[in-house]
């Protein structure tokens, strides 16, 4: 991950592009042998990028469903990128309403009987939670802040699922006050939830399954800080019933950015066996089962991810078979998708600033945001691609490393092919709708960008841009 992303051999650039953006990299790309290269020059600029002479623009299927290239420009929801940037400034996170609704409908169609709750953490926003509520969704929240946001969006308590590995008494009281379903995550939550007035609870259990995803978002293995080991979960179910809680069922969430169904299938099979064990040991069976979220999204063209339909239909089939296999009564189902709802719907538009050759191998294209609005590359080595939104039909022949404006060697995109870039161009980075702004920071006192929701040629602000004054207001002078 830390090696240079730049091919230093004379390999065909499209081969390098494939290997660089995929999960495995061709070993030859790590060779220190210098590559012969010509220069790609902006006329009159004197700034040289590495000229590689290959046409590649990221496929539009990484972008929201409404994305088009019209007259050489990227449009989303019928609004040209230049208009979005001109009116709302940059960086700007543009969410496509059509994509969000379609993803939500895909869940509802694939599992019509399930309660689907949006994993609010992916992008906590009142308007988006409200929009999803219109589509029949509830909300999964894991802090008091997310709970209040969901309530403000109008989600009723019976569609709220409250998580958290370290819930405070205040959070439990707020959950009880809202009439939400609480997912117990620790033995000491039994008494505290009962004292707070919580009624319905699920018990989160760790299935001991290692999902094939980044370790920071892998949560179903034995030893995870989330959930309870099976024997402890059995004790918590028994203690909860004794304490007068309505112990409705079980919860399992094995991780996020899952790009196949293997681990999820194993989890539902394991859960059915565990439920059968509970019946034997406690004479109790779950009437509700929450399978969490986790479906991944594609960020670069070499990524693969199942469709929502394929993922949910397969999971549901396995779930029903596993339950029937243990002769368990069919429970009500809850799903908690986050990333797969908003990930593809979001595109971040940045303004290009400095374009600077740093070495024979690297030319940096600097944007007006970076790690503060999208920490995923730094946190998880996440890969992205981009296009020049205002020159989307031009030949993409120059390789750039895209960097932000923060005081770290941050690289948002290790290598992308673009037309020879100029100060003032607009860089559009697709698949940035989930866990980007949501995990943003104010490092270097950089204000967080605005977000807009676009549909039918209209963009409306759903999150205001922060100002430097907002940030300075926290300091006591
Ligand atoms: C308990 C729980 N449910 C749902 C989600 C949402 O997951 P995703 O955004 O991968 O669908 C998460 C996120 O990790 C989670 O921890």
What is the name of the CATH superfamily of the largest domain? Alanine racemase
Terminal CA distance: 43 Å
Gross CATH architecture of the largest domain? Alpha-Beta Barrel
> Helicity level, as a percent range?
25-40%
User: For the report, how would you describe the main beta sheet?
Assistant: 11 strands, mixed
Bound molecules: pyridoxal-5'-phosphate
* CATH topology (fold) name of the largest domain: TIM Barrel
Class derived from helix and strand content: alpha/beta
Outline, from the CA principal axes? elongated
What is the average of the pLDDT values?
88
Number of helical elements = 13
* Low-confidence runs of at least 5 consecutive residues: 1-55
Total number of β-strand segments? Answer: 22
Strand content: 15-25%
**How many structural domains can be distinguished in the coordinates?**
2
CATH class of the largest domain: Alpha Beta
What Rg, in angstroms, do the CA atoms define?
24 Å
Written overview of the protein:
The chain has 477 residues and is α/β, with parallel strands linked by helices. The protein has 2 domains: 60-89 and 346-472, Lyase, Ornithine Decarboxylase, Chain A, domain 1; 97-342, Alpha-Beta Barrel (TIM Barrel). It is built from 13 helices and 22 strands. The two termini are 43 Å apart. Bound molecules: pyridoxal-5'-phosphate. Pyridoxal-5'-phosphate is lined by residues 119, 121-122, 140, 163, 217, 253, 256, 292-295, 336-340.
Annotation keywords:
22 strands, eleven-stranded mixed sheet, 477 residues, alpha/beta, 2 domains, TIM Barrel, disordered N terminus, binds pyridoxal-5'-phosphate, elongated, eight-stranded parallel beta barrel, Lyase, Ornithine Decarboxylase, Chain A, domain 1
């Amino acid at each position: 991950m830390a090696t240079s992303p730049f091919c230093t051999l004379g390999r065909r650039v499209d081969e390098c592009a494939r290997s660089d953006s995929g999960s495995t990299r061709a070993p030859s790309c790590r060779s220190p042998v210098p590559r012969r290269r010509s220069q790609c020059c902006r006329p009159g600029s004197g700034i040289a990028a590495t000229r590689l002479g290959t046409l590649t623009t990221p496929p539009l299927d990484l972008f929201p469903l409404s994305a088009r290239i019209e007259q050489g420009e990227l449009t989303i929801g019928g609004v040209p990128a230049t208009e979005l940037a001109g009116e709302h400034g940059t960086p700007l996170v543009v969410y496509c309403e059509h994509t969000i609704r379609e993803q939500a409908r895909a869940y509802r169609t694939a599992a019509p009987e399930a309660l689907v709750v949006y994993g609010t953490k992916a992008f906590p926003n009142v308007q988006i939670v409200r929009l999803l509520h219109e589509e029949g969704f509830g909300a999964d929240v894991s802090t008091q802040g997310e709970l209040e946001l969901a309530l403000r969006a109008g989600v009723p308590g019976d569609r709220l699922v409250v998580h958290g590995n370290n819930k405070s008494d205040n959070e439990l009281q707020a959950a009880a006050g809202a009439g939400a379903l609480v997912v117990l995550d620790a033995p000491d939550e039994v008494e505290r939830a009962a004292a707070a007035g919580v009624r319905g609870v699920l018990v989160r259990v760790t299935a001991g399954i290692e999902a094939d995803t980044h370790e920071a978002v892998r949560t179903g293995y034995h030893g995870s800080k989330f959930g309870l080991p099976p024997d402890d979960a059995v004790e918590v179910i028994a203690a909860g019933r004794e304490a007068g809680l309505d112990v409705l069922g079980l919860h399992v969430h094995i991780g996020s950015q899952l790009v196949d169904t293997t681990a999820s299938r194993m989890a539902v099979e394991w859960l059915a066996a565990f439920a059968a064990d509970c019946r034997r040991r406690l004479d109790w069976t779950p009437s509700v089962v929450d399978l969490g979220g986790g479906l991944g999204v594609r960020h670069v063209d070499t990524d693969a991810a199942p469709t929502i339909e394929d993922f949910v239909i397969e999971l549901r089939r396995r779930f029903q078979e596993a339950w029937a296999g243990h002769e368990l009564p069919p429970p009500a189902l809850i799903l908690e998708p986050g990333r797969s709802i908003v990930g593809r719907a979001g595109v971040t538009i940045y303004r290009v600033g400095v374009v600077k050759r740093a070495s024979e191998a690297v030319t940096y294209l600097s944007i007006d945001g970076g790690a503060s609005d999208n920490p995923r590359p730094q946190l998880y080595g996440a890969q992205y691609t981009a296009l020049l939104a205002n020159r989307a039909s031009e030949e993409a022949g120059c390789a750039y490393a895209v960097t932000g404006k923060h005081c770290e060697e941050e690289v948002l995109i290790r290598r992308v092919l673009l037309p020879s870039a100029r100060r003032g161009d607009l860089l559009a980075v697709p698949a940035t709708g989930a866990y980007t702004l949501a995990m943003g920071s104010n490092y270097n006192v950089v204000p967080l960008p605005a977000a807009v929701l676009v549909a039918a040629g209209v963009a409306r602000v759903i999150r205001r841009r922060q100002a430097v004054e907002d940030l300075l207001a926290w300091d006591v002078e």
